[in-house]
Amino acid sequence: MKAEWSKTVQDLLIGTTRGGGSPTALLADCAALGVAAFGATLPQAVTGEPLPQAPPEPANRPRPAARAVLEAIMSVDDEVLLTEWCALAKANNVVAEHRMLPALLALGTARPGLRAAVVEVLGTRGRWLAGTREGWSWASGAAPLVDEIPLEEVLDLPSAQRVRALRRKRRSEPEATRAFIAAEFDNSRRSADRQVLISALETALSPADEELLEAALDDRAAGVHDEALRLLRKLPASALATRAADRLGRGLWLTDDGFDVQTDELWTTQADLDEQRDLMRDGTEKGVAGRIRAAAASVPPSYWTSRLQTDDRGAARVLRRGPWAGALLRGVADQLAAATDPRPWAVAAAETLTGMEQLEMLAALPASVAEQAVVAVSVNWHYDLLDHACAQLPAPWSAETTRALLHRYAALPDPRWRSGRPPAVLLARGDADLLGANWEGLTRRWPENSLELEVLRLRIRLRESFAPPADAPR
Predict the structure, then answer these.
(1) How much of the chain, in percent, has pLDDT values that exceed 90?
(2) Where are the domains of the chain?
(3) Among 198, 279, 335, 356, which one is least packed by beta carbons within 10 Å?
(4) pTM, 2 dp
């Protein structure tokens, strides 16, 4: 057939006037052979059994307003809004409308980070639908959202996947996973493998991990040592904290101008081997300032409040003075999560930290504490630094935090490339009720009718769509 089609093409190019033959026959050959050469094959006959009937859905369907909001959220492709819709739907015992189920399943398949939220609103019918396609099986309920891998096979995965798999095991089986990590740590020859094992201990970290972490401080690989030291500093009652407290007590004395190095003591001489073992090997804790910073990073803020017999605010005020204030506060910044009141420490540390160090300090704090710290620290920040810090705060923010950051943004000049446009992170993560109450002020301060305002409109509509009717009993 291929040879006949090639001859027909040549005859078409030459033409019947020059090459002879019948035009009608040539066109008929062209139609028949062209379809045979390039036409699609006929579909195979379906022999499978039809799907069984979908089960009934016992959960409530969303009201028309909530359905419309979900459709709008899917059209703007906003993951934060979709997660918020799913959370409100779950709280109200509502599942997604049937016709939205394929789109939600496809979205969860493409973006694994959304699966935990999406699976809550699929309902009985959504799980049934997920069982009809292999790619949707994550939502069928027959398999976990994340593929669980036996501990014996974890180390065969790529490095990043190994850490995630081990941390999942730590959440579900902390004791068994600790025993596995300890055994593998002793047998692993590659430093990268040992570092992965130590890093996995961060999940469900407890005093029971101290023995293994102390042993890892003697590892010859700098990465393994530094990772173990970082985790030990998260244990407030560890032997490391005791050693650091002893060094701070011996090495620093309180003067009228704050803490200063004691003469003829350990920080006036070179570090011995025991102290070197408790210092980071990445070069950030060299010299007297680095050694003081390391000791301060290894004790909780309660050490300072106890030593000075005051509260966090008073202790932070003392540490801000003196020639070693910068080193001390850089160390304390690593321990803010353990402070009773982290705000005075955060404000004091912010005076000595760079912009990136400030963001790292805030990222290590719990969500509720980080909100307070951002509000307290960001008084003199420029727009970009405030925007980066706010982007690290989980949504939604509290009303008090939203009010404070709204005023903070409003007082700052807009960058030239965002002139007249509202801060996207504020409208996407701030308290929707408070932002809605300040709608007039928002549009006056940022008059550009942009996507950010549309996201806020959707958030307000979202909360209204799930609110009980005005005539419903409370």
Answers:
(1) 46
(2) 2-37, 64-139, 151-232, 237-352, 381-464
(3) 356
(4) 0.69
